[in-house]
Design a protein that fits this description.
The complex is a heterodimer of chains A (196) and B (74).
Chain A: H1 6-27, H2 30-37, H3 41-47, H4 51-70, H5 80-97, H6 99-109, H7 114-138, H8 147-167, H9 180-194
Helix pairs in contact in A: 1-2, 1-6, 4-7, 5-8, 8-9
Chain B: E1 8-13, H1 18-30, E2 36-38, E3 47-50, H2 56-65, E4 70-72
Antiparallel strand pairs in B: 1-3, 1-4, 2-3
The chains are: A mainly alpha (196), B alpha+beta (74).
């Protein structure tokens, strides 16, 4: 029996994410992936049933991994300011460290794989973030508001800044690099806007 | 789920369309082969079967008998 080679599986995952971003889901093929990994196509089919299965499995694994990183050291019981700061810290680090994965997840968001992949995000975040918001409302730190409004105000600015950074330019093509100063200044405004 | 990789049989075929796949589904059912997939999006239309008992030669024989090319994927 052949042993599942962990390094090879990781290489396949990493190259698949790169190629999916470079070629799009349409242009991506098992042959191209096999070539990029210097392995046979048959090896890929041992791990995955077909192209759909590969995209779905790798996408879901990456979403799970990123979600867990985003929740590291986050305690839903802590104060609103502290919790939101930790969320910003985790999310920015995760997205700045994994720009290619962020792009792939964006592609998944607008594809037929959307539903299955985003169940994973929902399942991971629903309980801790729901609890966190509920606690903040209970303690009178923020006003009750729909989750979507809360999310948009809490993270919208962060996601815009990170997109500018990962694309290397902001509005009208102006070069942009995200600094700690810019990031935390925006955070202070968000905190001020949400706090009672 | 861990599986025995020796039970995975892979073939390059000419099972290209949904209609071809539908036809092959009937062939598989008649032979009580349950764990199989064809990658219609792939240039080699890879047929993947998980079975502890089937031999590659058997698969090549019954797929070919039904009018499709079938060879071991390397």
């Amino acid at each position: 029996m052949r042993v599942r080679d962990v390094n090879k599986v990781e290489l396949v995952k990493q190259k698949a994410i790169e190629l999916l971003v470079e070629l799009g889901f349409e242009g991506f093929t098992m042959n191209k992936l096999a070539k990029a990994c210097k392995i046979s196509v048959a090896t890929l089919y041992i791990y995955y049933q077909d192209k759909d299965d590969l995209i779905l499995k790798i996408g879901m694994e990456e979403v799970t991994r990123m979600s867990n990183v985003m929740l590291e050291d986050f305690d839903p019981e802590c104060s609103f300011a502290e919790g939101l700061r930790q969320q910003w810290k985790n999310r920015s680090k995760c997205m700045l460290d994994n720009p290619v994965s962020v792009q792939m997840i964006e592609q998944l968001r607008s594809s037929t794989y959307q539903e299955k992949v985003f169940e994973v995000f929902g399942d991971t975040f629903k309980v801790p973030l729901g609890k966190f918001m509920e606690n903040a409302v209970k303690r009178g730190e923020i006003d009750p508001l729909p989750l979507e409004s809360y999310w948009s105000v809490a993270f919208g600015p962060l996601y815009s800044l990170i997109r500018f950074h990962n694309e290397g330019r902001s509005l009208s093509g102006k070069p942009f690099v995200l600094t700690d100063e810019v990031l935390w200044k925006a955070f202070d405004l968000v905190l001020k806007g949400l706090s009672k | 789920m861990e599986m025995n990789f020796e039970h995975i049989l892979l073939f390059k075929t000419t099972i290209k369309t949904e209609a071809d796949k539908h036809f092959i589904a009937g062939v598989m059912q008649a032979r009580q082969i349950e764990q199989w997939t064809v990658d219609l999006q792939d240039i080699d239309c890879v047929l993947r079967i998980v079975s502890p008992t089937l031999q590659t030669t058997e698969v090549i024989a019954f797929i070919s008998e039904n009018g499709y090319l079938c060879e071991v994927l390397t």
